[in-house]
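Structure (tokenized):
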């Protein structure tokens, strides 16, 4: 007998701003030096919020935003920064301790 499973979607569980902040903090810690992991985390948060509104705020098309944030996408740093800003975050650099 096969085991029935359902697909997990983290976006469905990001209900509050604190949920989103904690999710992104955990993803940044886990990502190490993998930029694709960070882009994926931003795409999850974008889906948890309104992707159409985010597209308007970034000046990107909705389809372009989905494509850039997909696993096959290769967004520019400028687009990642636009998405982060539209989501209410800013990218910062800190010294490694």
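Design, position by position:
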């Amino acid at each position: 007998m096969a085991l029935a499973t359902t697909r997990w979607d983290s976006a469905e569980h990001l209900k509050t701003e604190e949920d989103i902040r904690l999710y992104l903090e955990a993803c940044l810690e886990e990502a190490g030096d993998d930029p694709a992991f960070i882009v994926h985390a931003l795409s999850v948060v974008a889906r948890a919020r309104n992707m159409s509104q985010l597209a308007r705020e970034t000046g990107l098309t909705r389809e372009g935003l989905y494509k850039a944030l997909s696993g096959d996408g290769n967004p520019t740093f400028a687009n990642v920064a636009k998405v982060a800003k539209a989501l209410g975050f800013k990218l910062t650099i800190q010294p490694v301790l």
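Reviewer-requested clarification: The chain is about 55% helix and 0% strand. The longest helix spans residues 17-31.
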